[in-house]
């Protein structure tokens, strides 16, 4: 932790030193014969440069953020208060809160919310637990440790489309590999795409497969920053490996765990690609009974398949509000955690 | 010294950021070349002064039949680029937004039959009136009517249509003890899809192990619906889906399939469906002309000579497309000429010869010749004859603005629940009803 801090501190301190008259920089300029009072154009430019450059560096992000996030966000809010059809974008009629009222009374919306929550839960919890375990194993001295770490990251590097396509084949009802294996244990073939829990489990498994390695590497990085003397003193006190993991590793990782929980929760709320592609043709319905239609899918179905952009925008804003609530809850939890420490 | 180095670093970083930003922006502006696009066509000579772009979905067969090359040879100053978006549900929203933005459209834009009413009723002023440019009598009346507005502007020229037949596996039918002669079979189910379904019950009694009679209940539904007098909307554009005779009959036939054991329960155009063709896991499929190329491709060599074609119970149409010229295009005159040429009877016949997509211009029917390998693949069935007969008696059907989402509610929700989740037909119907309410915003 100490080295990046130093690296950060270094340019900052020298930048602070620059605008004032003192040492090397100004001296060098004087040496070249130019009258180097602060009013010279070069000095003024220099002062302006040091002040403006940081803004110039961060500006691209904010320009892009404005163009691709803020304006669409506000525009979506505007749309959500109107009746807008995809086929007649220029004929908008004011609808007030109708779209939102419509959502609150729609079974499909509540169903999508419920699915988002349940799929999020059964994909995030096992995924983070498995990642923690894997990271712990990777933290031991291993032969070929770099290889193991790279292998962990491969699923994350695979495209959603490719991964989902393979999983769809594995889970196919007739002749899929999963049912073939189950058959040896005497289990009846499961219709993974149409059954209620089966489809949610299948979608979750794709998410788990893709993100476990990614989270494991984050945990691993945090684990390696835990001072070795903590383990040594724990060992002297007679703690075994498991006790060390529970009483040293996990508490030390608390901020990291919280970070991954927040990121995974946001990811789960926005889950879209996996269920869409898993559904194949007409995937935006999320199964014939909408059994795995997430909020993201419902929004896509309303907006781009049915063409009701006003309602789709209302869904988008509901999702946004939901994320704000999640963020607020997380903030509260973090504060609590800090106080308890 | 140190400062100047630092400053030059900073400048370099600034330059890098600027380069990245412009790169990103350019990447966004240029999204017509996304992963699903296939930017080829033309003969690649690059001599063309004008590049016309044509936006399509799925396989249109123009490139496969060599039409772009041919056109470039006839008009050396023009080269053609095809932008393919494979999925219609991705293609159409993109076209709609671009039409309304007035930019980013291709010079020629293909329109699926399920979307043509929406285009006619809401986007007519965004398309060139092609009716003035062509001899309208070339097309089948109902095909022309579908792309014509109330005030007589024709915004799209018909490409193919989807006259219906039944494609069946002779070898499997024989093992199950059914008739294999195509004329006798056609006579057995003539007039009613229910008779075809009844034959399925007979098939299942002695079905070769691991095979079913049809691929899915939805395919029977779509085929039967395409022959009914009414679909989801009446002539005046009112939604009548739940009172429509055509829907009722098709639904009943599909329910017989879904509640019996005769369906392989596959979803059309899904990966497992493709595998079903390859493994020969179903014995027959309702087969509009454009599906023949698909069957040939997915069944592979194992199916060669085993497939045969018989006339469908009723004449019906399933699918087909149009090409329109958006007014926002840069090369309108050239685009009109190309659209006209591509949809002329001679060219439609060439596409049929390659791709078995059936022409919407009757004058082409006399000279139609399917490709030799297609004929051999389907046991030398007289496919030209079968499809022409069907095409001539297809009823005029009226489509509506939300035709596609309504259809998808009935097949992907209603029928699927009965077929794959064991729900009762009433439950399936009610589920579809709820879905359609949502679609129509009621």
Automatic annotation (TrEMBL), chain A:
Coiled coil: none
Topology in membrane: Multi-pass membrane protein
Keywords: Cell membrane, Membrane, Transmembrane, Transmembrane helix, Transport
GO biological process, one term: transmembrane transport
Pfam families: BPD_transp_1 (PF00528)
Broad class of where this protein is predominantly found: membrane
GO cellular component entries: plasma membrane
Compartments where located: Cell membrane
Region (Disordered) residue spans: 1-35
Protein name stated in the entry: Sugar ABC transporter permease
Lineage summary: Bacteria, Bacillati, Actinomycetota, Actinomycetes, Kitasatosporales
From TrEMBL, chain B:
Signal sequence residues: 1-26
Key word Signal present: yes
Keyword RNA-binding: no
Gene3D superfamilies: Periplasmic binding protein-like II (3.40.190.10)
A Pfam family per the record: SBP_bac_8
UniProtKB keywords: Signal
Region annotation Disordered: where it falls in the sequence: 421-442
InterPro entries for this protein: Bact_solute-bd_prot1 (IPR050490), SBP (IPR006059)
Superkingdom to which the source organism belongs: Bacteria
Protein name as catalogued: Carbohydrate ABC transporter substrate-binding protein
The organism of origin for this protein: Streptomyces dangxiongensis
């Amino acid at each position: 932790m100490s080295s990046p801090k130093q690296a950060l501190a270094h340019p900052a301190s020298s930048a602070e030193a620059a605008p004032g008259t003192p040492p090397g920089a100004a001296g060098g300029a004087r040496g070249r014969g130019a009258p180097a009072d602060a009013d010279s154009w070069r000095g003024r430019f220099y002062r302006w440069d040091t002040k403006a450059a940081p803004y110039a560096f961060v500006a691209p992000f904010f320009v892009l953020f404005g163009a691709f996030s803020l304006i669409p966000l506000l525009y979506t809010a505007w749309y959500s208060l109107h009746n807008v059809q995809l086929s007649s974008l220029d004929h908008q009629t004011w609808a007030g809160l109708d779209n939102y009222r419509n959502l609150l009374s729609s079974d499909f919306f509540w169903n999508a919310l419920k699915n988002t929550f349940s799929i999020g839960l059964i994909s995030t919890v096992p995924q983070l637990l498995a990642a923690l375990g894997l990271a712990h194993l990777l933290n031991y001295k291993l032969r070929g440790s770099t290889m193991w770490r790279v292998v962990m990251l491969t699923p994350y590097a695979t495209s959603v489309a490719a991964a989902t396509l393979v999983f769809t084949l594995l889970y196919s009802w007739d002749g899929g590999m999963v049912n073939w294996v189950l058959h040896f244990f005497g289990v009846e073939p499961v219709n993974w795409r149409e059954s209620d829990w089966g489809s949610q489990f299948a979608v979750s498994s794709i998410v788990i497969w893709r993100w476990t390695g990614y989270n494991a590497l984050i945990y691993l990085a945090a684990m390696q920053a835990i001072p070795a003397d903590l383990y040594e003193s724990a060992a002297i006190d007679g703690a075994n490996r498991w006790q060390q993991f529970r009483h040293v590793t996990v508490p030390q990782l608390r901020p990291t765990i919280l970070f991954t929980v927040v990121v995974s929760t946001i990811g789960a709320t926005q889950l879209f690609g996996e269920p869409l592609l898993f559904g194949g043709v007409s995937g935006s319905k999320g199964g014939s009974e909408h059994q795995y239609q997430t909020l993201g899918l419902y929004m896509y179905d309303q907006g781009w398949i049915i063409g009701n952009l006003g309602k789709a925008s209302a869904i988008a804003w509901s999702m946004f509000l939901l994320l704000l609530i999640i963020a607020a809850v997380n903030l509260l939890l973090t504060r609590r955690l800090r106080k308890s420490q | 010294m140190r400062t100047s180095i630092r400053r030059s670093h900073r400048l370099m970083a600034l330059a890098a950021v600027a380069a990245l930003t412009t790169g990103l922006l350019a990447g966004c502006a240029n999204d017509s070349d996304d992963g699903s696009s296939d930017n080829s066509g033309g003969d690649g000579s690059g001599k063309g002064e004008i590049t016309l772009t044509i936006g399509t979905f799925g396989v249109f067969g123009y490139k496969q039949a060599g039409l772009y090359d041919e056109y470039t040879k006839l008009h050396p100053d023009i080269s053609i680029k095809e932008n393919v978006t494979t999925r219609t549900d991705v293609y159409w929203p993109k076209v709609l937004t671009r039409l309304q933005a007035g930019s980013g459209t291709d010079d020629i834009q293909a329109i699926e039959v399920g979307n043509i009413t929406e285009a006619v009723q809401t986007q007519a002023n965004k398309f060139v009136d092609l009716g003035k440019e062509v001899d309208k009598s070339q097309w089948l009346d109902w095909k022309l009517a579908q792309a014509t507005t109330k005030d007589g502007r024709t915004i799209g020229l018909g490409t193919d249509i989807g006259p219906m037949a039944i494609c069946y596996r002779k070898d499997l039918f024989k093992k199950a003890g059914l008739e294999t002669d195509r004329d006798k079979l056609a006579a057995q189910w003539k007039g009613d899809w229910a008779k075809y379904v009844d034959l399925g019950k007979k098939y299942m009694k002695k079905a070769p192990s691991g095979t079913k009679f049809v691929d899915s209940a939805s395919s029977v539904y779509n085929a039967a619906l395409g022959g009914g007098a009414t679909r989801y909307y009446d002539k005046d554009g009112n939604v009548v889906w739940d009172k429509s005779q055509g829907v009722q009959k098709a639904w009943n036939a599909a329910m017989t399939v879904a509640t019996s054991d005769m369906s392989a329960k596959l979803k059309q155009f899904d990966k497992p469906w493709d595998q079903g063709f390859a493994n020969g896991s179903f014995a027959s499929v309702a087969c509009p002309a454009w599906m023949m190329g698909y069957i040939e491709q997915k069944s592979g060599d194992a199916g060669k000579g085993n497939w045969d074609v018989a006339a469908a119970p009723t004449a019906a149409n399933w699918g087909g497309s149009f090409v329109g010229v958006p007014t926002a295009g840069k090369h309108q005159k050239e685009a009109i000429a190309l659209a006209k040429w591509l949809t002329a009877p001679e060219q439609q016949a060439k596409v049929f010869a390659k791709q078995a997509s059936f022409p919407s211009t009757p004058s082409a029917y006399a000279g139609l010749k399917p490709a030799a390998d297609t004929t051999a693949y389907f046991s030398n069935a007289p496919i030209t004859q079968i499809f022409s007969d069907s095409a001539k008696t297809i009823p005029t059907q009226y489509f509506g603005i939300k035709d596609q989402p309504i259809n998808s509610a009935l097949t992907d929700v209603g029928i699927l629940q009965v077929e794959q989740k064991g729900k009762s037909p009433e439950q399936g119907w009610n589920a579809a009803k709820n879905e359609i309410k949502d679609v129509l915003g009621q």
